[in-house]
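Notebook entry, structure prediction.
Reason for the run: the old model in the group folder had no record of what sequence produced it. Starting over properly, with the input documented here first.
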Amino acid sequence: MPTPNKYPKEFREKAVRMVAEMDSPDAIKRVSEKLGVNRETVRYWVKNTPVSKGGKKGLSEEEINELKALRKEVAELRRANEILKSASAFFARELDRPRTR
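New structure, fully documented this time:
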């Protein structure tokens, strides 16, 4: 069972926005001190927030969705490829079998 977040979603989003607006090397430190939150906690929030919502690095929500879709497609293609390999091996054995008349 997941543990509830100590901080509300709005509070975390506000912290990420503040860091993005400051755009300075010590922004995470300053925001964490101002809000009374551990610096590593704020750094984690910023790291795991999509760029489109103020995160410093990472992917936008659109890119995340595209990545998920591509990973799903790759998994489907790999399954299809395994099926084709098995069928190919089966038919190759059939062709190699000596024919009786």
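Summary: The two ends are 67 Å apart (CA to CA).
The old model has been moved to the deprecated folder.
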